[in-house]
Amino acid sequence: MQVVKWEKSSRNFSQEEIDDFYERPLDEPTLFRFTTSKIALPAHGGAFSLKIVLSGEEHYEIGNRHLTVRPGEFLFINEGETYASSIEEKTESISIFAPSSEASPAVKSAVAKINDVLDQPSGCSSEPEVGQILFKQSPHAISALKVLKKAIDAGDTLDTRQQTQFLMAEALCDLFQYSPPRTFEKIKKRSTRDELRSRIMRAKRTIDDTNGQFANLDDLASIACLSKYHFLRYFSSLYGISPAAYARRRRLEEAGRTIGRIGNIGVAARRAGYKDKRAFERAYRRILGTPLPSVE
Question: Are 26 and 99 in contact (CB under 8 A)?
């Protein structure tokens, strides 16, 4: 594995450097760790890659989409995708590039790992599509990133490669749980599919962040910048469940955690929107497929 580290106030890349790295097939995984205040890379292609910002921010232009990667977020870019990138303030970042021989198996492995969550409906492509969208790092991915940074700083190339592979796997699982690789096949333009995923994810994160309490269809559609009809259609297509049903599930999951914390079923039921304990218990069992946590 090749590891490239440098710290400079600014960096200009020659066309020869760009052609040498981005326009040729990648033979081995390559990791760049930069600390800089200014970079401007013109539109270029390249290998499958994962973008991580440790401090500051990086800007990407992918077609007509403008994305800013900040700490706590990941961004995948697919092999051969044309994009431009830039840094305009002091930023520390990591870019991981993977050859096709490693990227494709990693994607398929991540899909298999969370197959029960994805459960692709009939009519969808069996080839998973990696969305070029911003998504949050999970606690598992954050831990994996910390271990990777230690391996890079220690100069251990073998360990860096192993930790890179592990982090890529965790990040792919994160992405596919946020945005299952259902491709909206009737929408031919890739950038449009990614934009829809991004908008739907934004509304879903609002439901997640409020444990299902924020569930008004008008408000969620507004967050996604879509009509109610299209938001409901695309959300259900992407996640296989309506926004209301998903919010109900999140409320019940939080109710289960509440019972574990305070041991009071009545309080948990009311917070989940149920006045009757029996109705709450039936809904919990039916929707989550498990009985209520025991109360000592």
Answer: yes
Q: pLDDT, tens digit, for every residue of 152-199?
A: 999 999 999 999 999 999 999 999 888 887 778 788 898 999 999 999
Q: Output the six-digit token pair for 159.
A: 């360990």
46 CB contacts (<8 Å, ≥6 apart)? 21, 22, 23, 77, 79, 80, 81, 97
pTM of the predicted structure, to 2 decimals: 0.86
Strand duo 73-77 + 48-55: pairing: antiparallel
Estimate to the nearest angstrom the gap between the alpha carbon of 265 and the chain centroid.
Answer: 34
Identify the CATH number of the domain defined by range 1-182: 2.60.120.10
- Angle, vertex CA 268, rays to CA 263 and CA 271, nearest 5: 150
**pLDDT (mean) for 129-146:** 93
Say how many C-beta atoms besides its own lie within 10 A of residue 225's C-beta.
Answer: 12
Q: Which residues are registered as beta bridge partners of 67?
A: 60
Who contacts 256 (Cβ-Cβ below 8 Å, separation ≥6)?
268, 284, 288, 292, 293
